[in-house]
């Protein structure tokens, strides 16, 4: 059945305004309101849930007769489907405004807002924040030939933006990049910068699938006891600048075999020399964020201090005990760095053969070789536990007991062994003393 309409294009072209507003009806509730000032407005009058309502469909002649009829028909279809056309129009406008707002929000802005939430208190430094800032820089600016996506708007972000970066970095950095990207999207959602019903494109990335397997980088380390004894003697007579803080740091590193970064940022507040304990807060440990997110142990790291370590620390306290850090840096440097320790080792002639991190491998190797009546003196897991590198399976077992008495024994044994090695006395399996010239 052909619909009958009251208005035509010719009629509309000859419409004149009057002293009072009047209507020109087209049928089905659609009409043109003609105002005294000459404006002509399309209106659709309808009833929804027992209430009379009015829907604006635009102004003539910007909206021609055919366009007004189509808008009218669309509104009637919504009404027949049980939807209020006015409410639907409002929702569409809000969605369009939200979409337009999203197009103005770039990934760079979202990343910066997330990074702001990570800032440490004013005047404080944070290794975690520095790492997060580095991940944001990679995501925004790229790394190597892999481009960043700072200018991409939030409605454009796809997995393809992140993949080139993940292929350009190593395994640990890949994990941190994915973590940062996910958190940025979560922050964007919380601040209304992300489409409500759209999932994050970074949510289901497998750390391993499609990427080369992680290969541990073996840092140079001396594992021969005689050669290690030579190194210890050289450290003992090392004379660094000023108060020889670097020499003290190398000695403490040898005695405790913690990570070099842990030595460099050590604070006096974390030491109890009376109890002979060094308690490193969990937040300062390597990969602390990833470990907590993965449900691993979040305990502080306890380093028992041997008698030799306590004596060394008491001497050091006379030099830096009034400050926050054991090894404060020079100039703008907050503390000494791992590179400072490595450069000192280079100066001693150990470039390429032993680095600051190598003390961990040395201690692990020599302690694991120790035997009493043909059996291990110390369990491998105990040594790993003291080095704060138990994997998830063994940690689940050994975290139930901190095994502190055994670790105190371990650390004192190691310090005593260092004294022996420094004097170039090494016993073979038959109890024969071997004396080596450390200057060789």
From TrEMBL:
InterPro entries attached to this UniProt entry: DNA_brk_join_enz (IPR011010), Integrase-like_cat_sf (IPR013762), Integrase_catalytic (IPR002104), Integrase_DNA-bd_sf (IPR038488), Integrase_DNA_bind_dom (IPR025166), Integrase_recombinase_N (IPR010998), Phage_Integrase (IPR050808)
Keywords carried by this UniProt record: DNA integration, DNA recombination, DNA-binding
Boundaries of every Tyr recombinase domain copy: 217-411
Pfam name, any one: Arm-DNA-bind_3
GO biological process, one term: DNA integration
Keyword DNA-binding: yes
Superkingdom, natural source: Bacteria
Molecular function in Gene Ontology: DNA binding
Keyword hit for DNA-binding: yes
Family: Belongs to the 'phage' integrase family.
Protein name, per record: Integrase arm-type DNA-binding domain-containing protein
Lineage of origin: Bacteria, Pseudomonadati, Pseudomonadota, Alphaproteobacteria, Hyphomicrobiales
